[in-house]
Amino acid sequence: MKVLCIHEPGKLEIKEFEKPGLAPGQAVIKMELCGICGSDVTAYRGVNPTMRYPINGLGHEGVGIIEEIGENDKGLKAGDRVALEPYVPCNKCHMCAEGRFNNCADIRVCGVHKDGMMAEQFLHPIQLLYKLPDDLSFRHAALVEPFTIGLHAATRARVKAGEHVVVFGAGVIGLMAAFACINYGAAPILVDVIQERLDYAKEQGVPYTFNSQSGDVQEYLKEVTKGKLPEAMIDCTGAPVILEQMHNFVCHGGRIALVGWPHNPVAINTVRLMQKEIDVCPSRNSNGKFPEAIRLIHEKKIPTEAFITKEIKLSQVEETIQDMIQAPSDYLKVIVNISED
After folding, report:
1. Cα–Cα dist 255/340, whole Å
2. pTM for this structure?
3. Is the dihedral of CA 321, 323, 325, 330 positive or negative?
4. β-strand 308-313 against 279-282: which pairing, if any?
């Protein structure tokens, strides 16, 4: 079988491996599609702080068909079409005991800490497989994993109906977070510096957008919220300039979810956070959101097709990532068709 390997930054290589054998509690999946995530791009650049090289198989946004599977309590069988949750927990630590598998003390994320999904066949725990509706295309199902990130972030920020939520970053995850807020009955305010992305978000139904290079973010937020400021904030950038000022972007008692990874520690204003009693909640991966994401995408609650920039072959991944590095504003989601290479 073919596998797209990344053994060091700046170098991808398709290699041949033996097809994985069936193991207890696992299933062999014929991989169909796998999205390219921003973390895959930073892994290629060598600036992903969580990446562990070498990895046989980049990618963690996969969907496919079960080829082999043993007895299981999920009712899954060979031939079922599935989405694969990529955060593999130890099932032994205190976080797993509490059901917070995304925050497992020894978590291994596919394509980051262990082999990833850009492979023709992939061995994966049955625990992390979710059956797809027959009429949901693999192309749209490939957006399930990134949508779970947005849903989990909105949950961490305790977004409620009728609220305003400022979302920083109009990339895929920021858009997913915005649509998670919409589906929870809140009004997202999307902030970015790339006007084309903001215009596109507006076209897709995001009610408020603001280019932070065009004026004062805090003043715009006050204008939208009639002076109150938003009840919640989701940061999908990790940018120090935002994190250092985050206390200015939510009202007293506001909640902030941090999704974007800063490259280095950031100084924050703990005095103002305390004075406003703001809850700051890092948001890591997602937890229990795959069924919800599959349902909402199946019900066409988010404009899935609008997020997909292009579909490519496995042999085109490296050149595409290089172009994504050079022209990031030209891309939202790129999907790799593994079965057609």
Report:
1. 44
2. 0.96
3. negative
4. unpaired
